[in-house]
Structures are given as C-alpha cells and as structure tokens.
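Example record

The entry below shows one chain as it appears in the dataset: sequence first, then structure tokens.
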Amino acid sequence: MAERKRVGILISGRGSNMSALVAAAQAPGCPYEVALVFSNVADAPGLAIAEAAGVPTASLDHRGHGGRALFDAKVDAILRDAGCDLVALAGYMRLLSDDFVAAWEGRMINIHPSLLPSFKGVDTHARAIAAGCRLHGCTVHLVTPELDSGPIIAQAAVPVMDDDTPDALAARVLVEEHRLYPQALAALASGRLRVEGQRVLGF
C-alpha cells in the first residue's frame, strides 16, 4: 500500500466529526492517518477524545497574536512541524486568512451542515426548516477564501420532516456527516480526485 497521507484536523469544540475521521483511519487500507488534532480552544473536549485515541494534539489560543494572519501563520507552522499533508476542518470556528488557505490549496477540506450552495454560514438547520425545504443535508468541499464556497466533493441528504425541530434535524444530518466525511477525506488522500473549475470528479 502507498504511504498514507498525514492529516491535521482542526477543531474548536467536541470534535464529533474528528472522532469519525480518527476511527476511520484505524481501518485496514485507509489512505490517511491522523497526525495531529489542533484546537484554538485549550479545553476543547475533542482534544481529550483525540488524546484518548492516541492521536497527538496541540492547542493555541487565537487571541493576542496581532491578527488573524499572524495566528494562522503559527497554526501553519504547527501543522508542518507535524508533517501534515492534508488539513480537515471539523467544527473549527475560525475564519481563515487568505495566506493560510492559499498555502493549503487543494489539500484542505471542510464539512458544512447544509446542501451547499444553500445556507452558507451558521444556523443552517433552522434556516432550512424556515425555508420549507423538503431535503437538507451536509456537504464536504475544498476550502477556498470565500466562506463555504469551494468545489464540492460530496453531499448527503436527509428528508425534512413536518414536525422537525432544528435539533432533531441536526441530529439526523450529523449521522450522515460522520459517514460522509471519512469517505471524502479518503478520496482526497488517495489522489483520485481531480478538480475541473467548480467540479470535483472521481469521488
């Protein structure tokens, strides 16, 4: 088997998608390994989960670094010191600087809780219900400077029920997130994806 790609996962909270990526990396034949879980929140619950799974962790408070670009440069150095080839955002609640995005162009992905391009940003489940959507879901995409706008790698949909609340809908979408994100990361790590404009082929 080819050498596995080393992935750095960025989190800010509980890291449930991080946990799904870490678990999938244990499977025989997985084309990636998790080299580092990083958080901008020192006591993020996901760090303890990663440590319990034997994954190296690091944290750095985003405050007091003289701005987003300077902080992101330090994060970039942490990822490179860990030998990361790819970056996966998993509930990382930071807008990224253009320089950081450019440094990892084509090698950084995110999972978003909507069927992009619908409902970029936050509160996606409540917005989908309010809009009368019959389908909702999640999207894995390559990260570009514009928020939630990078080329789409994969999507998964769930029905919106008549009696749905945002929390109930979020719980069903999260099941699909945990299934889809490892598959998309594996496709990227295997090298079989190719980008043609806004289209990602090969998933």
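Notes for this example: Strands lie at 5-11, 32-39, 57-59, 86-89, 108-112, 135-142, 152-159, 194-196, 199-201. Residues 166-190 form the longest helix (25 residues).
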